[in-house]
Design brief:
Strand content: under 5%
Mean pLDDT: 88
Shape: elongated
Distance between the termini: 107 Å
Largest sheet: none
Number of helices: 11
Low-confidence stretches: none
Order of helices and strands: HHHHHHHHHHH
């Protein structure tokens, strides 16, 4: 037995995606035509556009409609909003593209205090996942559109905040260095992965809304729940692995750039010292001739 499937776009997320595309493309073209052309690469544009597409797909049909009947599809929707969309949007940004709003972003971070700290992002991401998977809240979100919208806004917000601290396109006082990103991702992989495993091996259906659904695609409520939990746990491993690879490459690039800056500073210092020594020698020789 198959669940009812419909195809179509939801107007609000589609409008939001169009706005995101229009604002970004305008800025991307400006940077592309300037001396900072290298900072407006095609892959960044593709990443941003893809992030908007994920928003449209996640909130549209058939995913949104199937999420009303199958827990595994509802989980798919959540993971797209929580991880995939924020990652793609943030990959599209860098300090040059964000230059027009950098001061405003830093001003906001200074005003919100601890909320801008990576520990808050880590806690918000983890607690957001656990709280919304409490059966009473999950069932309420599945039955009521307003609660469902708030649930999705929460996942999108905490996801963006979490990944912001890891990928941070602009410099800031709270940027993690050294082993910080590894610990940050490691804690998340364990905590959220455990939640996924708990859903995978739960002996009974935890969510009454889905327990009352027919056995669509031959999946019992317990099997549907197990697939949703396995998807969550697997996604954490895959997404975190990709993010770690990107951060590792970026770390190597930043280390190389830092070494090049230090080498240039050393060369300048040595050149200045040589000039000063030459000036002293010249002055000494001039004094000796007198």
């Amino acid at each position: 037995m198959s669940p009812p499937i419909s195809w179509g776009l939801e107007l609000p997320p589609t409008i939001l995606a169009i706005i995101l595309w229009a604002v970004y493309v305008r800025r991307w073209i400006t940077v592309r035509r300037s001396g900072d052309r290298a900072n407006a690469s095609v892959w960044r544009l593709v990443s941003w556009v893809s992030g908007g597409l994920v928003l449209v797909v996640a909130q549209g049909n058939p995913i949104d409609g199937l999420g009303d009947h199958l827990l595994v599809m509802h989980m798919t929707q959540h993971l797209l909003l929580l991880d995939v969309m924020p990652l793609l949007l943030l990959f599209g940004l860098n300090r040059v593209i964000m230059r027009p709003i950098t001061r405003r972003v830093l001003w906001i971070e200074q005003r919100i205090g601890f909320i801008a700290h990576p520990l808050f992002g880590l806690a918000a991401y983890t607690l957001g996942m656990y709280v919304w998977h409490i059966p009473a809240l999950y069932d309420a979100a599945s039955r009521h559109d307003t609660v469902h919208l708030f649930e999705h806004m929460t996942f999108t917000g905490v996801g963006f905040l979490y990944w912001w601290h890891l990928l941070r396109p602009i410099p800031g006082r709270e940027r993690m260095t050294a082993m910080g990103p590894m610990g940050y991702m490691g804690v998340t992989k364990v905590t959220v992965g455990l939640l996924g495993m708990a859903l995978t091996f739960a002996p009974k259906a935890l969510y009454g809304f889905y327990a009352d659904q027919p056995a669509y695609w031959g999946l019992s409520p317990v099997a549907d729940q197990a697939m949703a939990g396995a998807l969550m746990a697997t996604e954490q491993v895959l997404i975190m692995g990709v993010a770690f690879g990107v951060l590792f490459i970026r770390g190597l690039r930043e280390a190389e750039q830092q070494a090049q800056r230090e080498e240039r500073l050393l060369d300048r210092a040595e050149a200045a010292e040589a000039d000063a020594r030459a000036a002293r020698d010249t002055a000494f020789m001039a004094g000796g001739h007198r």
